[in-house]
Design goal:
There is one protein chain. By secondary structure, the protein is mainly alpha-helical. The chain has one domain. The chain has helices at residues 21-49, 62-67, 79-93, 99-124, 133-157, 170-181, 196-199, 206-225, 231-250, 253-259, 268-288, 297-314, 320-324, 326-345, 355-361, 366-386. It is globular. 46% of the residues are buried.
Length: 391
């Protein structure tokens, strides 16, 4: 919204800075960070007064309950102020005429709403585990389908097909024109390590089912990872930073031509959206670092997971999410493998799942688990960026 202050640059020159993506992205990150830091105490007090606290009772895992007994009474549903901070910053600094931004707002707010209902049910005692798994899963699929329909409709209506204006530089305009002639089909999947315009398969209608899978899988993977102080917020911040960079590149025709990746007109605004998410997550981590003053709950984890998936889909870097979000992938796989091993072989593969709890059972202190997984997440983020030129 503040982007249009640049139109008054003829009367007051400094306002032209709002036309810069990097300035607005930096401002969005700082705004979301400060909003989360200063909104946090207000929400934490209200959550505590309403007894919206974490249930640490684990009838089927006595050792885990003992390890986490100190967390009893810690407020949950902190995702409310996290999502509010991110949405506010995105609303202030993103171009409101870009449909990709509004779809992103729909994703984060709708999945936060579903998570809020789940958390609220737990707190009201309508079910110790909140919504029934099948109802929660159906809600996730429904929201993912709506998001996919918006993307498909937008693609068919040409919402994302705006051309870059001529710059006057013949060499630059040639690169832009070349890149725009190779705009990737909306249903094409980019394969890392390859020349995207020669190898990436076009899935056709099946692509939209693929996007539903990504949205549901990523939201649940982040939800499973949210079990230790600062683990999910720290790891998701690194993935958000990765996709902010990828969004900036995907929206720049000359950079796309250089890296030989798809041009996504309008993706530059997702650079700002991703920066807001990054800043908001660090602001939340201010309160969520060990010992945590608040947990994000399903309100935050479902929303953040789905938003990361959306950034991956909208920037046409879906498969890189497997690397950038490798921590979440492995956490989800540990649960799947644990269940499969127990049902098929009658024994457990891990001491307990998800994997971060297995490390706790193995004698690792909570801080060691979190910081070491952060380190792995940072390395994976760096590798993800490097994949751009590995073909």
């Amino acid at each position: 919204m503040l982007r249009y202050l640049s139109l008054a640059g003829d009367w007051f020159g400094p306002l032209r800075v709002f036309d810069s993506l990097t300035v607005r992205a930096s401002a969005a990150a700082i705004t979301a960070f400060l909003a989360a830091v200063f909104l946090g105490p207000v929400f934490i007090r209200r959550l505590a007064l309403r007894r919206a606290t974490e249930d640490v009772n684990k009838p089927d895992a006595a050792k885990l309950q003992e390890l986490h007994r100190i967390k009893k009474g810690t407020p949950t549903m902190g995702g409310v102020f996290l999502v509010a901070a991110v949405s506010l910053a995105a609303l202030l600094y993103c171009d409101p005429l870009r449909p990709l931004v509004w779809i992103g707002q729909f994703v984060i707010l709708s999945f936060a709403g579903l998570g809020f209902i789940d958390d609220y049910w737990k707190l009201r005692g309508w079910g110790r585990q909140g919504l029934k798994k099948r109802h929660k899963f159906a809600g996730e699929i429904g929201l993912a389908l709506l998001t996919t329909c918006l993307l498909a409709w937008g693609s068919s209506a040409g919402w994302f097909g705006m051309s870059a204006p001529p710059t006057g530089d013949h060499e630059a305009d040639f690169i832009v024109a070349t890149s725009e002639r190779n705009l990737v089909a909306p249903t094409r999947v980019v394969i890392p390590f390859t020349k995207w315009n020669e190898v990436g398969p076009d899935l056709g209608t099946a692509y939209w089912f693929f996007t539903v899978l990504i949205l549901v899988a990523c939201s649940n993977a982040v939800n499973l990872t949210d079990g230790l102080d600062g683990l999910a917020s720290g790891c998701t911040a690194m993935v958000a930073a990765t996709y902010s960079i990828l969004a900036y590149i995907a929206g720049n025709a000359m950079l796309c031509a250089f890296f030989r990746i798809p041009l996504v007109p309008g993706a530059g605004e997702l650079f700002i959206f991703g920066a807001a998410l990054f800043g908001g997550l660090f602001g939340f981590l201010w309160h969520n670092a060990n010992p945590a003053q608040v947990f994000m709950g399903d309100t935050g984890s479902l929303a953040i997971g789905a938003t990361l998936a959306y950034l991956a889909i909208a920037t046409k870097h879906e498969l890189i999410l497997i690397v950038a979000g490798g921590i979440f992938v492995f956490e989800a796989l540990s649960v799947i493998l644990q269940v499969a091993s127990f049902r098929l072989l009658g024994r457990r593969l891990f001491k307990i799942a998800p994997f971060h709890h297995h490390l706790e059972y193995s004698g690792w202190k909570e801080n060691h688990v979190v910081v070491r997984l952060w380190i792995v997440g940072l390395m994976l983020a760096i590798v993800s960026i490097c994949l751009l030129k590995m073909h």
